[in-house]
Design a protein that fits this description.
It contains ten helices and 13 strands. It is α/β, with parallel strands linked by helices and 307 residues long. The strands form three sheets. Strands 8-7-6-9-10-13-12 form a seven-stranded mixed beta sheet, with helices on both faces. The chain has a four-stranded antiparallel beta sheet with strand order 3-4-5-11, with no helix packed on it. A two-stranded antiparallel ribbon has the order 1-2. The termini are far apart. The protein binds zinc ion. Zinc ion binds next to loops.
């Protein structure tokens, strides 16, 4: 594979000077429009390319919409095995989402909240218990049904654009590790801007590439983008939002949250005894924390007044 997937256009006035090319070519960056991308570890059927202009990491080749939707088919996609009881995850999510709500309530008054990609409804459950009017959007009908039946929350099954929410309807809109799965991130932010009250808040948490070091996939990767603090802020500003705070954290981090929730993970105990590489992993963990590499970025943003 060529190191550069698309060459820069040579400037006719200044031969040899390479200029960024903006446009709507199929390969142009979905954030900044630039068409120069550098592959990150090319080799599999799918890999990632980095926009040389804004730094956005994008899956390449970009999957067809039909292939993507089939990934969210109820038989194929489930955060837990279908035979498992999703409620076993509940204590872990309770800890995380109570902390998230503490932070949200620092910025926003309790009112109407929408969780996009709400999965089994664990976040909506915590919202409802605190007196929020909680609604969800979820592609998986199995997960949406679970959320409705278990937690008594309203969940629309399908993409956000089909839900037809009224203008200026929600006080808060959240996306917990969902934004990186959406093929049209800017259009989604514009829709969120429309359904959010002018004094509302949106909270977007995304994983960083550190949390998924394997950039090469044979199957369609579900993370279509990897955002960093800069590209996420740029996407928000382009869609009429003003980021007000960014938080960097350790990620949804099963292990740390399980510890907080007082749960022992039997798999990790077994792994400690059978995995000879475990000491090496521990060293790598220390290195990561020492150099401050974060697995997750959370951005809090408000609608820009007048936009
Ligand atoms: Zn770009």
């Amino acid at each position: 594979m060529d190191m550069l997937l698309r060459g820069r256009e040579e400037d006719a006035r200044e031969p040899g000077v390479l200029r960024p090319v903006r446009g709507s070519a199929p390969n142009s960056c979905r954030l900044c429009g630039y068409v120069l991308h550098r592959p990150v570890l090319p080799g599999g059927r799918f890999g990632y390319v980095r926009c040389e202009h804004c730094g956005l990491l994008v899956v390449h080749p970009f999957p067809e919409t039909a292939d993507l939707l089939s990934c969210y088919d109820d038989r194929a996609h489930s955060p837990v095995h279908p035979a498992d009881d999703p409620s076993r995850e509940l204590p872990v999510h309770r800890v995380r989402f109570d902390e998230e709500l503490d932070r949200i309530e620092w910025f926003a008054r309790r009112g109407r909240i929408l969780d996009i990609g709400c999965a089994w409804g664990f976040f909506l459950d915590r919202c409802k218990r605190r007196g929020w009017e909680a609604q969800g959007v979820e592609l998986s009908s199995v997960e949406a049904r679970y959320a409705r039946q278990r937690f008594g929350v309203e969940v629309f099954t399908g993409p956000l654009g089909d839900a037809g929410f009224p203008d200026r309807h929600f006080d808060v809109v959240t996306l917990w590790h969902v934004f990186e799965h959406i093929p049209a991130p800017l259009a989604t932010l514009v829709e969120i801007r429309r359904i959010l009250k002018p004094d509302g808040l949106t909270v977007i948490a995304v994983p960083t590439p550190i949390s998924a070091p394997d950039y090469v996939f044979q199957a369609v990767p579900l993370h279509l983008f990897y955002f960093n603090e800069t590209t996420l802020a740029r996407a928000l500003r382009q869609s009429g939002f003003r980021p007000i705070q960014t938080r960097k954290g350790g990620g949804t981090g099963g292990a740390a949250l399980m510890k907080k929730a007082g749960i022992r993970d039997p798999r990790s105990l077994i792994a400690r005894h059978v995995n000879l590489l475990w000491p090496l992993k521990r060293i790598l963990q220390h290195v990561r924390s020492a150099v401050n590499l974060h697995k997750e970025i959370t951005v809090y943003a408000v609608p820009e007044s007048g936009s």
